[in-house]
Amino acid sequence: MAKSEQRVALVTGAAQGIGAAIAAELAAEGLKVVVADINGDGAQAVADRIGGVAKTLDVSSPEQVSTVVGEIVDELGRIDVLVNNAALVPLTPWAEISFEEWRRVMSVNVDGVYLVTHAVTAVMGEAGYGRIVNIASNTFVAGTPNCAHYVATKGASIGLVRALAGELGPLGITINAVAPGIIASEGVLSSAHQHGFDYVVPMQAINRRGVPSDVAPAVAFLASEKAEWITGQTLVVDAGHTRN
Ligand code: NAD
Ligand code: 4PL
């Protein structure tokens, strides 16, 4: 199997929203992008649009993660960039969060990040090179109400970035988080999160609704060769809604 010189990126949850914008940005920069999503048809549509490769993948399934990462290595020969974007984005008051919902959110947003990162770092470690970007959220900074399980998972994502940076650095792998503020993705626009713009936009330094393409360039920079000296960090991309 011939190895191409083109860098390969795996973006999870890339069938729509922020993930699709990241996939498009990386493709525009010349990377071969694997568009992975539990929604296989949506992933295929995005892959067709950007000249990428679609994979149906539930990140919370150990079997599926193992199979898909193996397929990518077989078919494309390398994984240079991983963007852990797939997540459930619920809006549920604390008193109404059942243990079942809590566990499902942990399973996708935390177990999913573990599973994909664990599989991909094995490949990157062999190559001695990698760029990992976790999509966190500024809810971890703001302590946004009515999604405590979700905020907890984003804390886990940032914790993993901080902890793994030291273990992955010697392998030539950087790992960082990008923490967006509220973004008009398909998911947010089709849920009660859409009403969040009414109170968040006035708190931002730039007073318009954020869109997925506002987040993608920060991710592409951290995934680039030029970001070699940055690891273990969280970059908040929220038009100044929060300041840290
Ligand atoms: P979205 O709901 O519009 O899209 C999420 C995508 O993930 C969908 O295509 C969905 O099919 C996929 N997905 C869900 N479960 C999956 C699973 N088990 N395996 C694989 N794919 C799965 O979401 P979005 O708003 O674009 O959010 C993307 C990322 O950005 C998430 O990590 C989210 O937490 C984060 N984020 C979003 C906002 C926002 O306001 N939209 C703000 C900060 C952070
Ligand atoms: C500020 O990550 O960061 C709503 C939904 N509002 O998912 C988020 C803000 C949402 C956010 C988020």
TrEMBL record:
<dbReference type="Pfam" id="PF13561">
    <property type="entry name" value="adh_short_C2"/>
</dbReference>
<dbReference type="InterPro" id="IPR002347">
    <property type="entry name" value="SDR_fam"/>
</dbReference>
<keyword id="KW-0560">Oxidoreductase</keyword>
<dbReference type="InterPro" id="IPR020904">
    <property type="entry name" value="Sc_DH/Rdtase_CS"/>
</dbReference>
<dbReference type="InterPro" id="IPR036291">
    <property type="entry name" value="NAD(P)-bd_dom_sf"/>
</dbReference>
<comment type="similarity">
    <text>Belongs to the short-chain dehydrogenases/reductases (SDR) family.</text>
</comment>
<protein>
    <submittedName>
        <fullName>Pyridoxal 4-dehydrogenase</fullName>
    </submittedName>
</protein>
